[in-house]
Each structure stands twice: as structure tokens, then as C-alpha cells.
Design a protein that fits this description.
Layout: E1 2-4, E2 13-15, E3 18-21, H1 25-33, E4 41-44, H2 53-56, E5 61-65, E6 88-91, E7 94-99, H3 104-107, H4 122-135, E8 163-172, H5 174-185, E9 190-194, E10 197-203, E11 210-216, E12 222-226, E13 229-232, H6 238-245, E14 270-278, E15 293-295, E16 298-306, H7 308-314, E17 320-326, H8 333-346, H9 354-363, H10 365-377, H11 399-402, E18 405-411, E19 421-428, E20 434-440, H12 444-463, E21 467-471, E22 473-474, E23 477-482, E24 515-517, H13 532-552, H14 557-560
Parallel strand pairs: 1-9, 2-12, 3-4, 3-13, 4-9, 5-20, 13-24
Antiparallel strand pairs: 6-7, 7-8, 8-16, 10-11, 11-12, 14-18, 14-21, 14-23, 15-16, 16-17, 17-18, 19-20, 22-23
Helix pairs in contact: 1-5, 1-13, 4-13, 8-9
Amino acid sequence: MLIDAYTLSTGETIETEVCIVGAGPAGITLAREFIGQDFRVCLLESGDIEFNQQTQSLCEGETVGDRFPELQELRRRQFGGLASAWSIEIDHKQLGLRHMPLDEIDFEKRDWLPYSGWPFSKSQLNPFYERAQTVCKLGPFAYEASAWEDAKSPQLPLTSNRVTTSMFQFGPSKIFTDEYRREINQSPNITTYLNANVVEIETDETAKIVTRLRVACLQGNKFWVAAKIFILATGGIENARLLLLSNQTQKTGLGNQNDLVGRFFMDHPFVHCGLLFPHNRKIFNSTALYDLRQVNNVPVMGKLALTEQVMHRERLLNMSALLFPRHEQFRSAVKDSVKILLSCARRREVPKDMMKHLSNVVKNIDSLTVHWWYKYVLKKYSKLSPNLSEGGWSNLNRKEHKFAMFEVWSQTEQAPNPDNQVTLSTQLDRLGCPQARLTWHWSETDISSIKRSQVIFAEDIARSGLGQLQIELDGEIPQVMFPSTHHHMGTTRMHDDPKQGVVDANCQVHSISNLFIAGSSVFPTGGYANPTLTIVALAIRLADHVKAHFAASPLKLTETLHRDFTI
């Protein structure tokens, strides 16, 4: 059943067994796992089926530190969550997202990386990854290149043990925004409430048990939800914000007795690594593995990645390298000048050699106008400038004549840093709640690891006789393309020790027996992989945990929650 919360009476209390807050991929996966169970489930979603700007304004907040996008641009208050904004063109019929699991090293405690280490290994999560493959409508649980290459599209013949090829798979967004919404709505034990904004989590006087949630609608009515189990699934920023807002019993916020809620915020910055000039242009005819294309009816794309051996040996963070072919006119002096001028304008800086760059633009304004017309009006260069949102270049004819180089992009791991933090702002949202405030900085570990990894990619490409990767930096630091890829992680991190984590290995908030957290906010480290597949896998694991509790003692659930269960 689906209900618009605007229709509820002020002061009404909804009673249920399980309450899930947030209908993004995490919350939707949990709800699907509970379909047909012998307990009631309430799914609360802040947004509606369709996007609404007034509701979206509740995502507004402030950012402090290094350049970072506005917070309202990075989240989506709508059924489906960020799946509603996925923009990769899987084929001409559907949009979707890249998926892959975290690597084994991402779960390990690395002696060179403070605060690293999950409470369990990847092997323990693999059964849930396999189930997540089905949920996300992906192919087989295989991400090594050998499962997808063939004689006409082999992996690049790199000759060392430092760089390898691995794969992304792509899954559709409509399963979360449409298909699974219909499944959930048809289940008699699940009720979804739209336009329902949780503004406070209430507990008993000891803050050991959550008793109910206070929920508000933008039109003014307010109501309550009482349950036996509560699960927050509102994303890496909002999960932390909700805990911090709930400060009536614990003045620093729920689960924050050790000042950890909101800390260790991580993302996956994208950097421009440089340009790869091949020794032989015929390489464009044999690199289809690195294009977004269908293999055995599964959309996949290869990319280069560091091996675990080199990361251990050189104490590096995880990082990938994506290859996008570019035409001869992709890079020219005038286009470089435009890029430098725009970059400096965004940072409100005066560029070096400003007059030279301005002169370049003025002298070549005619050619820039023609290029703009062809690219944005006629769209003549669309397949000649493939990017994260569109592939298909490997299907073109005469590729060796169309392309001259690869542009190399890198999605990077960010080191967990307690000073990268979500806190509460002094500014209030439309419901009178403090907005989120994000403090985010690059660290020396981030920068030095990226720069060393770029050198390794360049050295191995050269040693293999493939060409020359010309690394391009922004002064002494990497060229940042996107500081954020909407992958918000770490703010309610997982650790068995309450002094080092907000939740335990079962995603239960330490010291609160019936409050759980789903989503990437529980990640202790984030690797470079898009987090959605891991989010879904952890949601399935948490759902199994909750179902096991009900099966064990449905009438004494609160008591059983104090025990330590391992799924």
C-alpha cells in the first residue's frame, strides 16, 4: 500500500514492527526482502514519486574546505533516491549505473592507512554480493577481465604485476524507481508513506531503545511512527544528520557518545589523469573491452586498476583508470586556454599567463564557435567524445582515423579522515531543523597516492609498448574533474569497538538495541568502486539479520536484540 502522508491527521501514531526511513536502493532492498513476512513494515520516504523542488530544498546545506558541490546537488529526495538521477545510457532504452564490488584489500586493515579495516572480510560478504547481482539486474558475479574478453576485444597486454584490467557491470535505474515500487506496494504487510520527513528519533530515558519517530510534512501536519525495529537508510549525509538532530536524551546526538557520528566522510573524487598517445592507432580497433557495450547481453566496461600487490608494496590507496578515445582536435592550445580560464574563474583565481590565454581565445574565437556549433547543436562529435554517460565508440568504422589518443580518468579512493565531517549548521530548513554542514579537505595521503599511481600507470603503459601516458597536473596537485561522484560514505562507520565506530558488524548502532543503519555511511573505507552494489549486499545481509531475530523470538524481540548475532 502507498499513502501520501499529507492525508494523515496531525498527532496520529502509526504502529508497526519494522520502520525503514528512506526509499533509495538501500531502503527499497530492505523492504523487498521483507515482502510476505509475518510482520508489518512501514517505509517512510521524504519525497514523492515525481521530483519536487520544495522537498528537494530540504537537502540544502553548507560546505566548508576544499571545492565541493552544493549539497542539494548530490542527493535526491524522491522514491528511488539517487537511482532517480542515474544518467549512464546503458542502451537506447534505459539509463543506469556502473556496479562492481569492493576489492579484498578494501576490507583489510592496512598498516599504512589509519582507521582502515572492516569487521569482516570480502569472502564473508560474497554470498550477499551474489544475491545483490540479481537485485540490481546484473550478469554473473564475475568482474575479472578474463570472463568478458575475446580474441577481438582482449585486455591490454600489460607486462608487469602492478596494473591489471577489471570490469564494471551496468544495471538499470527503473528497477528501483518503478518495478520494485510496484512489488512493494502489492505486498499486504508493507505500507509506504510519501512526503514523510523524519525530523527526530525518540528513545527511552536511557537512550537504549528507540520508541518512536517524529515525522513532519511540508504542508504542516505531523505524526509519529512507533516500531520494534528502526532502520535509517537516508544516505551518507542524512543518516548522520538524523542522529545529530536527535539530541533530547543524548545532548551530542544518538550514537555519538564517542564523537564519531558524522566523522570520516569520504567520496570518490574523479581526476583527469592525462592523455595516452598510442604508438599505433590500430589499438582503437582492439580495445572494445574498455568501451561500454553489451557482452552476452550484459552491459560491461573494462578499466585499468592497481593490483593488490603494488598497493601493499607501495602503500597506496585504491584507484582506477578509465580510457576514453578522443579525436585529433580534442586538445589544442586554444581549448587548453579556455579550460584554464574557466577553472581559475571557478576558483576565483587569476591564472598564470592570463594575457596569453586571453589572446589565444580572442584569436581563435571563430574556430571555437564552429566547434561549439558542431558539438552542442549538430552533436557531430557525440560518439567522438565518449564519457561516463555514453559509450558505443567501439562500433564505429575507421576508428584509427577518427581517434588519436585516449583521455584517462581516474576514480579514486579517499583516505578516512576524522576531520572530514558532517555537523549541524546554524541555518534551518523549511521544517525548522538545522541543515547539514560538510567539512571536506584533500589530505596529503590522497594527493601523494594519486600522483604515485599515475606514474605507475604511465610506466607500465610505456613498458608494455602501448604508448605514452602524458600525466597532466594542476600545478602540484591532480587535476580534479569532479570532487564528488555522489558517493557519500563513512559518517556512521562500522567497527566492533564503540570507541572506533558508530555501528557494529550487524549495522546496529552501539548501545541502542533496536536502531540499525543501512547504506554507505557504515563503510569504514570506500575503495574506488561505486558503492551501490555493496549497499545492496549489506541491506540484504541486514534484512536476514532482522528476519532471524523475528524468527528467534517474535514476542521478545527487544530482549533478543541485546544478544550478539552474526549472519
